[in-house]
Amino acid sequence: MDMPDLSELARTNRMKREASTALILSVLVLAGLYSLPFGKAASPAASAVSIASSTPDAFADIALHAKAAIVYDLATGQTLYAKNANAQLPLASITKLLTAYTAVKELGEGAPVTITPADIAVEGDSGFSAGETFRLRDLARLTLTGSINDGAAALASAAATRKGEPVPRLLAGAAAGLNLSQTYAIDGSGLDTSSTISGGYGSAHDVALLAGALLAEAPDIAEATTQRSDTEKSLTGVVHTKPNTNTHVSITPRILLSKTGYTDLAGGNLVIVFDAAVNHPIAVVALGSTEEYRFTDVDTMVNATLAHFAGTENP
User: Fold this and answer.
1) 30, 190, 213, 275 — which has fewest CB within 10 A?
2) Is the Cβ–Cβ distance between 64 and 300 less than 8 Å?
3) Is residue 278 part of a domain?
4) pLDDT-derived band at 16, boundaries 50, 70, 90
5) What CATH number did the domain enclosing 291 receive?
6) How deeply is 257 buried, as exposed, middle or buried, from its count of CB atoms within 10 A (0-12, 13-18, 19+)?
7) pLDDT value of position 1
8) Domain containing 188: what range?
9) DSSP letter at 181?
């Protein structure tokens, strides 16, 4: 009897092992118990290492003050953590993300936007002057970083005028285009319109998608919200500097976008997007917290997210 070809036998056995591992991974993926790293096709051997080194649920024991929250993987579309994530709640100034996104889509970042007396009449005079004109990109950067109400009013009004429809309908159309099923806005700023009605509503899940959409559409505008302050010059030559309303912006690792919100009806809201790894953006949202605890709520979820990815290979 001839001796078996040992190299051929080893190759056959290796192929069988890899096929078995791949089958197991397929079952886990379909069951929602495992996800491959974004943009990479992991080998069965590498994936097996990831499973073996997985840690307990990093989000299992976190405690939040927020009424609703989400950690959403924008790269994979996977929800890593959720608390009442589809509940419709007042958005306060997070509404400005929808305003900026809509204005960019309708007008383009280079469009001129002029501040009107009606814009300045909105609560929260920021130092703009009636008749002062900005490039849309620059006004949007200031508006989101400093959460400027008259800037948001000017952006919404300019886009609505171009579109030829009221601001609420304009913003509703933009929300529908992004499949934000719980989101609508009465005005561009998100300020409470009365003691019982907010200027904008949405869910934590919708806010995560909206933040991702703005980041993709206008990353240079989003970039301003990651700094401690933003300085821009109007086309009329006036320099404006606005501090960031997110006081924790400098401690969030690899931050890509941030936006605060606070009114009596909404409580404290905050959304941030940060990179868990190269080209792996994660949206973290807290709605209905307090003015103070919105920051610690988001910090808690960011830390849990980092711990989650520390237990996987190449997130």
Assistant:
1) 30
2) yes
3) yes
4) very low
5) 3.40.710.10
6) buried
7) 41
8) 68-310
9) T
